[in-house]
TrEMBL record:
Localization, UniProt: Membrane
Entry GO terms, CC: plasma membrane
Domain RCK C-terminal per the UniProt entry, residue ranges: 215-302, 308-393
GO biological process, one term: potassium ion transport
MF terms in GO: monoatomic cation transmembrane transporter activity
SUPFAM superfamilies from the UniProt entry: TrkA C-terminal domain-like
Annotated keywords: Membrane, Repeat, Transmembrane, Transmembrane helix, Transport
Transmembrane segments: 6-21, 28-46, 58-83, 95-123, 135-154, 175-195, 414-446, 458-477, 489-509, 516-538, 544-570, 582-602
Taxonomy of the source species: Bacteria, Pseudomonadati, Pseudomonadota, Gammaproteobacteria, Oceanospirillales
Superkingdom, natural source: Bacteria
Main subcellular localisation: membrane
Topological relation to the membrane, as annotated: Multi-pass membrane protein
Organism expressing this protein natively: Amphritea opalescens
UniProt-recorded name of the protein: SLC13 family permease
Length: 604
């Protein structure tokens, strides 16, 4: 063992120890590795930073942007709403829908992004159905990890394993090569998470600090029975006039706050601004008492449609409410709703007023506003978000739906098409994975699914730096002779064993390391060792690489094993031992399935 080998092994052990210690950020540890390697002279200065130019790092960055596009356009939130409708009030039924859906989403987008999106959705479902968040949040996290096992782009370890095969001059894994094993683990994992895990999980109550739903705002202000839909007939007096011109609030005490205009490819539900002209066939979303609505229909030639549940669900995607408080210096004090010109100034409509904690009657438009009044403003989410920059009142509360929707949900079909085209190009082989991902990322930005600033924010810089910083360590192990030393030792210890036992040893090693350090970093370190062992025994490296790729995603047994576990730790009120109790059986189950199926698909 030469001095270079000693330095590399020492650096490797110190790196793992720092990862487990967790007092220094992992990306900073990775940069420290780069600096030490640059000073050591074991690899050249260019090689120490070569990880930042690796196609793997660029592909993962591109996938962050594509996933952000799906989030910003509300695609993922729409899936969450569907789960709520399908799951109902039953915990088991909810899990039977939630686990496969989250796994499927995590197979094509960031697992961390999927979990971050679904945490408020799950907490909302628990609040509505009076379920225990601790029984749903850990299964949510584990479902995303299982989903990462199912495709080439599902998780960085899969891409690491594939690119390492290609770097060794071998055929890389295809997009769906992971799917058979991942799908079987998903089936058994779903049954485990639905029927066994809830018995092992702690009980926790729903947090009372969650934002209320839109329905709760409606109940608080007494407006739940005063929302209506009206269709404008061809001969209606409203056609080609604005709401301001028609004085509907003054004449009928009715506030029109949105218009649904049919006939476009994308839904055209729009806020009513002071200059918005009403057209024949429009559906008006209005607030007012029944007698005022009836009188409006009679005098203006509108058709009353009630307020169907599907219209409410559709409205929630683009429209919401905000509760604001009039402070002592507000210029609105002493003015009526009409005089306050809320629609002209803020593009929002006042649909409710609370005074001393009690709702005023619907005919509050002529009532002068007082200090301490709270107003319920309705309109487009983007205008509600802009309220935070105004100082005429204090923003008290926004509904939970505000974090589950997007101002660009109308771009959802575009985002879906971009994602499907990316997958099609990758699967067909028409373009390389790198080219397909970069093309999709660029299309997300150019199509308006997200802005350039949002694209930059979506890049998980710490993950990218971690991967780029650890890649040169694997190269240093190879150049220093450390890799050959490890392979020789393992061949001596396992050389007479059956290949399946070697795979089992690699699975255990990879899985255990992934509980304490980044699964991507673990794969970067173990992958070249696995290839060298296979080649040393004259065996096909593919089953060994598939084994470690799946093992790297079995980060179930500690809250620090994966960012998704860390995300659910606090809202689920979990302890370290909860992850061990629930995650370890799932880990063992995944290993058994992998060791049975891998040789069947990828013979030794």
């Amino acid at each position: 063992m030469n001095i270079d080998t000693i330095v590399v092994f020492t650096l490797l052990l110190v790196t793992i120890a720092l990862f487990i210690w967790d007092r220094i950020r992992m990306d900073l540890v990775a940069m420290m590795v780069v600096v030490v390697l640059a000073l050591s002279g074991i690899i050249t200065p260019a090689e120490t930073v070569s990880g930042f130019g690796q196609s793997l790092v660029v592909m993962i960055a591109g996938l962050f942007i594509v996933g952000e596009g799906l989030f910003r356009t509300g695609v993922a939130a729409a899936v969450g709403g569907w789960i709520m409708r399908m799951g109902g009030q039953s915990e088991k039924r909810l899990l039977l829908v939630l686990v496969p859906v989250v796994a499927a989403m995590s197979a094509i987008m960031s697992s961390t992004g999927a979990v971050a999106l679904f945490i408020p959705v799950v907490l909302s479902m628990c609040r509505t159905a009076k379920l225990k968040p601790s029984h749903l949040l850990m299964p949510l996290s584990f479902a995303s990890l299982i989903g990462g096992m199912m495709t080439l782009i599902g998780t960085p370890p899969n891409m690491v394993a594939s690119t390492q095969l290609h770097a060794a001059g071998l055929e890389p894994f295809g997009f769906f090569d992971f799917t058979p094993i991942g799908a079987v683990i998903l089936v058994f994992g779903t049954l485990y998470l639905v029927y066994v895990a809830p018995r092992l999980l702690p009980d926790s109550a729903v947090r009372s600090t969650e934002h209320p739903r839109l329905k709760e705002f409606a109940e608080r202000y007494g407006i739940e029975d005063n929302l209506h839909c009206l269709r404008v007939r061809k001969d209606s007096d409203l056609v080609n006039h604005s709401v301001s011109d028609l004085l509907l609030r003054t004449r009928f005490e009715v506030t029109v706050f949105a218009i649904r205009r049919d006939g476009n490819l994308v839904s055209s539900l729009m806020p009513v601004l002071s200059e918005t002209l009403i057209e024949s066939g429009d559906v008006l979303l209005a607030y007012g008492q029944a007698e005022g609505i009836e009188q409006l229909c009679i005098e203006t030639g509108c058709l009353f449609l009630g307020f169907p549940a599907e219209e409410r669900t559709r409205m929630d995607k683009e429209f919401g409410v905000a509760e604001v408080l009039l402070h002592g210096r507000s210029p609105m004090i002493g003015k009526t709703i009409k005089d306050g010109r809320f629609r002209e100034q803020y593009n929002l409509s006042v649909i409710g007023v609370l005074r001393a904690g009690k709702p005023l009657a619907t005919r509050f438009n002529g009532e002068p506003l007082q200090f301490g009044d709270t107003l319920l403003l309705a309109g487009g989410w983007r205008y509600i978000e802009a309220l935070e920059e105004r100082h005429n009142f204090v923003m008290l509360e926004t509904p939970a739906e505000m974090t589950e929707t997007s101002a660009r949900w109308g771009h959802a079909p575009v985002a879906l098409v971009i994602m499907l085209l990316m997958l099609g190009l990758m699967i067909s082989g028409v373009l390389s994975s790198l080219a397909a991902i970069l093309l999709a990322a660029m299309a997300m930005i150019l199509s308006g699914c997200l802005t350039m600033d949002e694209a930059y924010k979506s890049l998980n810089a710490s993950s990218l730096v971690l991967i780029a910083g650890m890649l040169p360590l694997a190269l240093a192990m190879q150049k220093s002779g450390g890799l050959d030393l490890i392979v020789s030792a393992l061949l001596t210890f396992l050389g007479t064993s059956a290949p399946i036992f070697i795979c089992a040893a690699l699975f255990v090693l990879t899985s255990v390391l992934s509980q304490f350090i980044s699964n991507t970093a673990t794969t970067v370190l173990i992958a070249p060792i696995s290839i060298a062992i296979a080649q040393g025994l004259g065996l096909n490296p593919e089953p060994f690489m598939m084994t470690i790729a799946i093992a790297a995603s079995t980060a179930f047994s500690t809250p620090i094993a994966s960012p998704v576990n860390t995300l659910v730790l606090v809202p689920g009120h979990y302890r370290f031992i909860d992850f061990v109790r629930v995650g370890l059986p799932l880990q063992i189950m995944s290993m058994v399935i992998t060791l049975i199926m891998t040789p069947m698909i990828f013979p030794f």
